[in-house]
Specification:
The protein is an alpha+beta fold. It is built from five helices and 14 strands. It is 17% helix and 33% strand.
Length: 212
């Protein structure tokens, strides 16, 4: 909901967009590629743009006023980089930076998050790392070693490495429950350690099987 539009999703994956000014149904969009909607939201930059993600890890940007896929989706939704098609886990949420000038969104699963900027080119995959991703919140010693190695590299190579690119993926060490923007340049990440998950399991049941 953004003040003018209210988007709702049925249990079948169909999208209903209501106009709050007229209090009427504005648009109905049936299920996309037989995949359920996992997250959605209106862009702060343009309230007519509805971004949704699906259980197939697809991203769509709809033009609500025109009742159709937006220009970005018509060009790119079916030709996303392979590193995103291999995104670890199922997308469970998304977050927009709280800025009227931002064109980006972060989508995330319990295992990773991905930076998507609708104003940037959809660049091709490279062969640097699987999924085009860098470890995120990994072992501190490993991070220090990696950084020390990078310091010995050519500064031009380092700047290329640190330049933000579209569909950058960062992996999480522990399962993540929520990711949300606190400001344009800061994120709140709520995670649950694997050890906490394991400790929540019931104790194993031992039963003697007679005759063995």
């Amino acid at each position: 909901m953004d003040g003018q539009w209210l988007a709702a999703v049925s249990c079948f994956g169909d999208i209903y967009v209501f106009n709050l000014e007229t209090q009427r149904l504005h648009w109905f969009q049936c299920k996309m590629n037989d995949a359920s909607v996992t997250a959605g939201g209106f862009s702060p930059r343009n309230s007519n743009v509805l971004v949704i993600t699906t259980s197939s890890n697809e991203v769509y940007a709809f033009d609500v006023e025109a009742k159709q896929l937006g220009e970005w989706s018509r060009r790119h939704s079916h030709h996303l980089p392979r590193r995103f098609q291999e995104f670890p886990g199922e997308v469970i949420g998304l977050s927009f930076p709280p800025s009227l000038y931002s064109t980006s969104v972060i989508v995330y699963s319990a295992r990773a998050m991905c930076f998507i900027d609708f104003g940037m080119p959809v660049d091709q995959d490279d062969n640097e790392l699987p999924n085009g991703s860098d470890p995120f919140l990994e072992n501190n010693d490993a991070i220090k070693i990696t950084r020390s190695k990078r310091k010995r590299k050519n500064p031009e190579e380092e700047s290329k490495r640190t330049t933000k690119r579209n569909f950058d993926i960062c992996s999480f060490r522990d399962p993540v429950l929520f990711v949300g923007h606190l400001s344009e340049n800061s994120l709140l990440i709520v995670e649950k350690r694997w050890m906490d998950v394991v400790q929540s399991f019931d104790a194993p049941v031992h039963r003697h099987i007679y005759g063995t």
